[in-house]
Write a structure and sequence with these properties.
The structure is a single chain. It is built from 22 helices and 14 strands. By secondary structure, the protein is of the alpha/beta class. It has three domains: 208 residues, Serine Threonine Protein Phosphatase 5, Tetratricopeptide repeat; 175 residues, Rossmann fold; 179 residues, Alpha-Beta Plaits (2-Layer Sandwich), CATH 3.30.70.1230. A hairpin with a 6-residue loop joins strand 13 and strand 14. Helix 17 packs across helix 22 and helix 19 crosses helix 20. The longest helix is centred in the middle third of the chain and has 21 residues. About 1% of the residues have low confidence.
């Protein structure tokens, strides 16, 4: 990233405007490293986190950066916004006093700065309405209308005018203001997403929300195209027709954001079409770049390698779902697809935009998790909408599969959790039996409660001292166990047992491909691999009483139909023992 101050701020603000909140946050943090006293970069970092829904981390940084000490509207309003976000984290029946607290914070800003700024006025008005104070809400909404009508029209003045009209029950005037706002040059994705989220919270009717359409998000996938003249599930002569159908789909569904891999054929065509529309492409590769080219690009011949390289250069983000080489491990392809699907769903949660899957497929069902049929089946099984662009295979029934048979068969996708209890090493021999009975016993009961008596998802569990190692076949179940363990230990009071310091658990979790073998020493099934090592290096950097997640784990939670948990982004962090850097998320139970 650039070390130029102006360029860093511009890049961060541009990412924020496009709803690339994670990128905006990373631009801000990179800038703060070079300009540690820059309040604009600090404001950008906190705002990006807030828009991502990472309320706890945003609030922590807001305090750390001392933004409340800056007597200006924007940093003070950001503090009020975080109060509103805290209100939204409460259960619905408990929200009103929190909304009122946030409303009063906005109203103080409005009054203290001369009652001439519509931004704190409209936020105070809406929050008073949510706090069941309609008279105060309408009074401030009326002031907002007067202020906005005096302003030079821009997106936010028009959107605030529309919001005020909504609070006053003037639906036609609300729609008219929104139409003007969305027709302006500053009606970017993030601004419209924030406005739509606010209007939905206020109970706006569908006819109003229809004025705030957001660009669609897709997970794309499809067959590798055959070389000219070759037998293939996606014959080369159908390329032009598929390209036309891809363009028509993107246009029909207003798709501007895509997530997928980059094999020759369908993947590259989706990426090219999105870039041609001025859209955003996010690529996930399953393993080493050169091995991927060998496995998934070169077989198509022609100019597909050049097209691959061009998309890679223009992609907004390239992520590797696993490190290392291919080695014939087909699980890596399935892991890559799940990662891309999860990232698309994470983006949906940030923007509130619709997400779909679209695949180029010949209709042939397989029993493999990897591949186009498997991707579509996985997406549908998780309750999401999938669309097919059909191709006609020209393979004979005796033709060999286009993908090589897997040579690695003892690899599987799992959620790996490591944990330990802070302070264990300081316990005396007298305290160790108490620890085992009450602390480890409490954690055991928490795991049983989370599993509901069904241990089928728990593939393996082991302990040593205070250390805990668990392997699950489902990220949501792993998250539930981790959360139950944290809560149980927080409520475990050992003062009457002779241990004065409250035990605190810290956990690290990762999702990805691992190897399973019968351990030659213990004779029991055990799990090995880079993803296990990564989880082990996360736990030491996790805060006490929290669960740190990798992005791959966070993506699986976003993809999971249960939606019991979310993940707050906390930044790219150095793992223990110089194991490299990884994007870290904080586990967050969804509010009920």
């Amino acid at each position: 990233m650039s070390t130029d101050h102006h360029e860093t701020i511009q890049s961060g603000q541009a990412a924020l405007a496009q709803g690339e909140y994670l990128a905006a946050y990373e631009y801000a943090l990179a800038g703060i490293e070079h300009f540690p006293d820059d309040d604009q970069l600090k404001h950008l970092a906190v705002l990006a986190l807030a828009r991502m829904g990472a309320t706890r981390q945003a609030s922590k940084l807001y305090q750390e950066y001392q933004l409340a000490e800056i007597n200006e509207v924007d940093p003070l309003a950001l503090g009020a916004r975080l109060k509103k976000d805290m209100a939204l984290m409460q259960s619905q029946q408990d929200q009103a006093p929190y909304f009122e607290d946030a409303a009063r914070a906005y109203e103080r800003i409005f009054v203290d700065f001369g009652r001439n700024d519509y931004y704190p006025a409209i936020n105070a008005a809406s929050l008073y309405m949510l706090a069941n104070e309609p008279d105060l809400a309408r009074e401030l909404a009326a002031e907002t209308v007067a202020l906005c009508e005096q302003q030079e029209a821009n997106y936010w003045s028009l959107a605030s005018l529309a919001e005020a009209r909504l609070l006053l029950g003037e639906i036609d005037a609300c729609k008219q203001a929104l139409q003007q706002a969305c027709a302006g040059e500053y009606a970017d994705i993030a601004s419209k997403a924030a406005t739509r989220k606010q209007f939905k919270m206020l109970g706006a009717p569908d006819q109003v929300l229809a004025e705030l359409t957001l660009p669609g998000i897709i997970h794309f996938a499809g067959h590798i195209i055959g070389a000219p003249g070759a037998q293939s599930r996606y014959p080369a002569e159908q390329e032009s027709e598929v390209a036309d159908q891809i363009n028509a789909f993107l246009e029909q569904h207003n798709v501007m954001i895509g997530y997928g891999s980059l094999a020759a054929g369908a993947d590259i065509q989706f990426a090219e079409a999105l870039l041609e529309r001025g859209g955003e492409v996010n690529i996930v590769l399953p393993f080493d770049r050169d091995d991927f080219i060998e496995a998934s690009v070169l077989s198509a011949g022609g100019d597909w390698l050049d097209r691959f390289e061009q998309v890679m250069q223009r992609a907004s983000k390239v992520t590797y779902s696993a490190t290392g080489t291919y080695e014939g491990n087909s699980v890596l392809f399935h892991n890559c697809s799940l990662y891309a699907m999860g990232l698309a769903c994470l983006r949906r949660s940030h923007l509130g935009a619709p997400v779909k899957q679209v695949v180029v497929w010949d209709g042939e069902q397989t029993n493999m998790a990897a591949g186009t049929a498997g991707d579509r089946a996985t997406w549908q099984r998780l309750g999401h909408e999938s669309h097919v662009i059909a191709v006609q295979s020209n393979r004979s029934k005796q033709a060999a599969p286009t993908a090589p048979a897997p040579t690695v068969t003892n690899s599987d996708l799992t959620a790996v959790v490591f944990g330990d209890v802070a302070g264990f090493s300081k316990l005396s021999d007298r305290e160790i039996p108490i620890f085992v009975e009450y602390v480890m016993g409490t954690l055991a009961r928490a795991i049983d409660k989370a599993l509901g008596g069904d241990k089928s998802h728990l593939r393996s569990v082991n302990t040593w001292g205070d250390g805990i190692f668990m392997v699950f076949d489902d990220a949501d179940v792993a998250a539930a166990c981790a959360n139950h363990m944290l809560v149980a230990l927080q409520n475990c009071d050992l003062t009457d047992k002779g241990i004065e310091e409250q035990p605190q658990l810290r956990l690290g979790a990762n999702y990805g491909p691992v190897f399973q073998f019968t351990d030659p020493i213990t004779g029991r099934l055990n799990f090995f691999g880079h993803q296990v090592n990564t989880a082990a290096r996360i736990e030491p950097i996790a805060p006490q009483g929290e669960v740190y997640l990798t992005e791959s784990f966070a993506a699986q939670l976003a993809l999971h139909p249960a939606q019991r948990f979310a993940a707050d982004y906390v930044g790219e962090m150095q793992l223990a023992k110089n194991f490299g850097k990884s994007r870290m998320y904080l586990l967050k139970p969804q509010s009920t």
